[in-house]
Amino acid sequence: MKTYKLWDGREVPAGKLFSELYNRTKQLGMGALMSAGAPETMTAEEAEGWVRDRETVHFDYVLGRPIKLRVIDGEITERSQKLYDRDAGEGAFEAAVTAALGESA
Fold first, then answer.
1. CB 3.0-4.6 Å disulfide test: which of 4, 14, 19, 23 passes with 51?
2. Domain extents for the chain?
């Protein structure tokens, strides 16, 4: 299972985090036009296909949803949290991390 490292040292399963980020947002603005046929939810297995074998990724929007995930050499940038929270609400990124790690909030 692929993992990414957070700026605070925690390692999070990449597919689980990506699916949590996707599932916790909605299409914004013109994103609704880009999302025709997009799944309402994404499983961790489906999300794994988006990040498999990639140490550097930059997702701004995915199927019309603001993900704002940037990973450089396997490490998620702290700015990813700030941008995701801006669009999904304060604390949303940490809630997704907590869920991906299987921890209770």
1. 14
2. 3-100
How deeply is 31 buried, as exposed, middle or buried, from its count of CB atoms within 10 A (0-12, 13-18, 19+)? middle
| Six token digits for residue 12 | 């999070």
Stated pTM of the model: 0.87
DSSP state of 41: S
What does the pLDDT look like over 63-83, one tens digit per residue?
Answer: 888 999 999 999 999 999 999
3-state secondary structure of 58: strand
- CA distances to 12, 18, 71 from 58, in Å: 17, 12, 6
- The model's pLDDT over 23-71, given as tens digits with 9 standing for 90+, comes to 999 877 665 666 666 778 899 999 998 888 778 889 998 888 899 999 9
Query: How far is the C-alpha of 65 from the C-alpha of 28, rounded, in Å?
Result: 6
